[in-house]
Amino acid sequence: MTAEGQAVWKVFCPLASSMGVLAEADLQTLERLCEVAAEVRRLTNVIAEEGHTYTTENGLIKAHPAVAMAADADRRLLSYLTHFGMTPAARSKVQAIGEPPSKDPEDEFFN
To answer: What's this model's pTM, rounded to 2 decimal places?
Structure first.
């Protein structure tokens, strides 16, 4: 894992653990989440330093390549965050490990 990924790991690992959504089998996926989060951070820094666009030798204004790369990394990061229930919408769908399924009163009534 890169140094940047390790720094993100130190934030996300305790967070996922405290949410009860981290099992040993998930560590590789969490590692990917951390690497992608670090990639987003690096690309965001490149864009902040170099700008969203650049001008070619012919005077054309083009999008900086890091912009498309950051958008792709953002999509991948959101996907990983969703798997771990780390977005507002995903939190309601992810169940903590070891937590019994919630009983739905309608299930008891209709079954």
So the answer is: 0.77
